[in-house]
Amino acid sequence: VVGHSEIVGKPLSLLLLEKFATVTVCHIGTSKAGKLEEHVKSAEILIVAVGKANLIKGEWVKEGAIVIDVGINRVADKIAGDVEFETAEKRASYITPVPGGVGPLTVAMLMRNLVEATKLQELN
Question: Of 78, 74, 29, 38, which Cα lies nearest the Cα of 56?
């Protein structure tokens, strides 16, 4: 997991740990120490949520890895993720696009949670 925010990185890392995944969390210190590329290159599942356009270079992505790009960044008149999509998709077995990848799923889960909360409220 690249990024340790309270919104994505930390909660997602904890969810993965609960499922007995071996999780490595990379943050600004990892990057400053020059270790980010090394960790990315070894990841079988790479989840990136840092808010910095194209931070993860496509050639860093391990062949066959699954890449989930949560980043949303404005670059000129376009929206870009945290991963260089064009080069990464050549190496990854699956990669989420930005826009159109994680965002619609987030909206769907918010709606599901809203419906569940409404049902619980009606019971009380």
Answer: 38
Which residues constitute the domain of residue 107? 9-123
Q: Which residue has the tokens 């020059």?
A: 34
Residue 112 has pLDDT above 90, yes or no: yes
Domain membership of residue 1 (yes or no) is no
Q: What is the pLDDT of residue 111?
A: 97
First and final C-alpha spacing in the chain: 39
pTM passes above 0.85: yes
Q: Are strands 73-75 and 78-80 parallel, antiparallel or unpaired?
A: antiparallel
Give CA torsion, residues 14, 65, 53, 30, to 10 deg: 60
